[in-house]
Amino acid sequence: MTQASSQATVGGASIEAQAEAFRQNFERIRNAVGRLIVGHAEIIEGVIYGFVCGGHVLLEGVPGLGKTMLVRSLASAVDCEFSRIQFTPDLMPADITGTNIVTEEGGSRRFVFQKGPIFGNIVLADEVNRATPKTQSALLEAMQEGHVTVAGQTYPLTQPFFVLATQNPIEMEGTYPLPEAQLDRFLFKLDVQPSSVSELAQIFAQTTGTDMADQAAVTDGAGIMQMRNLAKQVPIAQHLLEYVARIVLATHPETDGSPSEVQRYVRYGSSPRGGQSIIRAAKVRALVEGRYNVSAGDIRAVATPALRHRVLLNFEGEAEGINTSHIIAAILDKIPDVPDAIKRL
Fold first, then answer.
1. Distance between CA atoms of 320 and 158, rounded to whole angstroms?
2. Model's pTM, two decimal places?
3. Rounded to whole angstroms, what are the CA distances from 84 to 38, 95, 203?
4. Per-residue pLDDT averaged across 243-267, rounded?
5. Structural domains in the chain, sorted by start
6. Which of 144, 136, 138 has the alpha carbon at shortest distance from 54?
């Protein structure tokens, strides 16, 4: 960071000071969650990225891997209201958003809106693909717009608002796969892998003994909003914006020069939201790494979780069990972060 940049100010304090405060706050949150969650360091970091970015995260993994404990520990670490929605085929939109109920006061009756569980700061949407598309659409409005509409009346959600949805990849009977439009609303999709032997042993020790102590909050909702506002202001160079654009275009099989894996196995590539997600997450990563500017390394580090659910395989890709993460890795290997024209200068 140059001397000139360190003297610049945001909100009355130097950029350098705010960036360091951001890094320390992020580290405190990560450590607080990590004390309760064994392993899964990348998953913990990805979830916190989504929360700080103001996006939403989809976790995919078999039951029993600690997904619920992860989001509960995050809520306690940031002193935010936590709510859980267990998605089932008979779940109705009103079970999520809330409904108007009749109350009687002073001999008169009137409708009063009773808020649903979506009115929390951190919402766990457990097994989201078990609900019908009608119910999923109610969640979609809340995720995208930051409000819900009931009986023609709009109710804003309290910020910060963060949805962490889970789905089970091995039990597909009786499920309704999330439509592409809703998948696109998630900033990240994170694949939760089984724990190692040592991690399992530690989990058994923690969960079969005495009750764990309550987690002390290390920040609050206002602190998260300050971090979010600072991350939005992190600058990114024009050539890196174009680098992200080339990555997104390379996910489309009809793009000239896209990797052979894309042309062979991909049906549809990422929407522009994929690029926006990369940039938002890269800005957070830059601050976490102690920088007030985005690097190509930041972009590469967050590209896979930002794009893996936005790259849709064709029949051949699904039949051969192709992992979209491998597709994105091939794209990152082929697409240069600096165009040849700049390299020749």
1. 44
2. 0.88
3. 22, 12, 23
4. 95
5. 1-232 (3.40.50.300), 234-345 (1.10.8.80)
6. 144
